[in-house]
Amino acid sequence: MNKPTLLLLLCLSLTAAFPKSRRLNEHAKRKLEESTVDISGTWKPIRIKFEYVTDADLQTKEFLNQIFSICGTFLSKHLLIRRSSDKIQLTQDAPAQFKEFFEMSTDMLSVQHDADLVFFVNTMNDSNDSTLAFCAPVIFDDKTKRPIFGAIGWNMAYSQVSTLTNAGFEAQLATAVHEIIHGLGFVEDLFNQFYDSATGEVYPDGGMIEEDDVVKIITPRVLAFARKHFACDDISGVPMEQEGGDGTAGSHWERTLFYNEMMTGNDMVSDFVLTDFTFQLLQDTGYYRLADYKPDILTWGEGEGCNFYDSMCESDFSEFCSDEGSVGCAITHNGIGVCSSDDLSNSCKYYQIDPNLDCRNANSAGYSDNAATFQDFGYHSMCVIGGFSASSGTPQKFSCYKYSCDGTFTITVNGKSIDCSNGGEKTLEGLSGSITCPENYKQFCENADECPNQCNKRGFCMKGQCTCYGNYYGSGCEQENCTKVRKGTECVDSCPTGYYLNEVVNYCIGCPGYCASCSSYNACTQCQDGYELREGFCDLLSSSSYSSHLEILILLSIVLFS
Ligand SMILES: *[C@@H]1O[C@H](CO)[C@@H](O)[C@H](O)[C@H]1NC(C)=O
Ligand SMILES: *[C@@H]1O[C@H](CO)[C@@H](O)[C@H](O)[C@H]1NC(C)=O
Ligand SMILES: *[C@@H]1O[C@H](CO)[C@@H](O)[C@H](O)[C@H]1NC(C)=O
């Protein structure tokens, strides 16, 4: 096993103040660079284990156990690794490597862990420190270079455990998933160590470049996906955050281009999305491949073209606002916000959701006249321009109302449905005020990613689907005690044809990501359109090669029919 003395700490920070972090030392870097990768293993679901080394009280430990169990279940369901050995064990010099995080007793060295990755979780309780949590990969596997031991620090000062609402719990979970993804290898110092899992070779031009102090990812899947997402074939490197200082800059997606992606660099009031930017980067590490998954979609910048990518708020895109302090619906429609910039947004302004006006949070305080203006907060609610009131109130300029994307697009106010499928301004009989139907409702509905009651503190929500921990199941993990196997939201006797049991989490899963037919969860035989089959998995064709295929087809058909 490789033995770097210490890696950098990757933090999700609350506000502007960022803690110092260390970089991978030169010795560790060289060791990683010199070792060759063994690509002989088959892909199996990752088993992640959390060891609590904190002396915190029982309630705190139970809370941590709950969030990390959910994270572990979610990642085991989706991520596959090449397993070098069934058990992993720390080496004699581990106490020195973990010294900065906690005092490791020598007893811990004799433990054999039934896991592929173990995180030691410690806590702090410091409201003067803006760090919510940090995570670092510490020890790496000799054969695959993959992290196998890591450290997590959690600041309890920002986890009001006894009063957490479902939305509050979901925000804590997003922090936990964010940190663990750093622990999986999403760190600047490893980008140049990433390798092609099909060959074991590092990428010919490396994993990143640095241009004008901006770190840009140049690994193939991330590049291909960025070109597709932004609809810009000219993208030659995907920018990471350059603000926020050490520990934030370089190791997170740039806020101005990625807004609420879960791997952006600080916390925000919003529904974080876990998108293919992060999943493709995880696959580009060489350490991971993806089983069946449906990522969240980033609305921000979707299909906006090279101009968005190049000039961001200097051009007139609806993602940004210009009138500082003005009020409006957030681009994702999930809350009412104030136009302002944040510490990572390169001075670009957007509608930052007011914590009291987060439409998705059933416990939002809302306005003082919620009842008179029929505000409705919860996972099924969205921000709409305009509002209604009974005779006793004044309509709000922006409101949270219930919506449905089921067939038609409807907004529901005070029990009455308004068909908003064809846009326009709408009034309701007997009420004063009006609403303007959202223009881009199709994009909004296609990207809808909320889960019932945010999975009731029992699961992690991605693209509207809860992955539940323990034996929970159901669309919001509300059902208990599945003693058989789980498939989607159901508890079933056994996995049906076309599904394969992931024994680590007791879920039936289908073919790998973007695969059309397969013989197992790790063996695709045919990919969906636009994806290329490589070693049993599907990779996005880079848009330029995809469009040149199309050109060839078009040329051929012209020749054939002329
Ligand atoms: C953290 O510190 C605060 C204030 O000192 C205290 O009230 C709270 O109980 C502590 N939380 C934990 C989990 O120890
Ligand atoms: C936070 O800082 C204040 C002022 O410096 C100090 O009085 C307080 O004890 C600190 N709190 C913690 C938890 O360290
Ligand atoms: C699930 O199992 C637990 C423990 O055996 C039990 O207390 C609980 O009532 C069960 N719940 C349901 C819905 O069967």
Automatic annotation (TrEMBL):
Signal peptide: 1-17
Cofactor(s) listed: Zn(2+)
UniProt KW keywords: Hydrolase, Metal-binding, Metalloprotease, Protease, Signal, Zinc
Active site residues per record: 179
Pfam families noted in UniProt: EGF_Teneurin, Peptidase_M8
GO cellular component terms given for this protein: cytoplasm; membrane
Chain positions recorded as Zn(2+) binding sites: 178, 182, 252
Residues covered by the EGF-like domain: 466-477
Alphabetized PANTHER family for the sequence: LEISHMANOLYSIN-LIKE PEPTIDASE
Entry's family note: Belongs to the peptidase M8 family.
Name under which the protein is recorded: EGF-like domain-containing protein
Gene source species: Paramecium tetraurelia
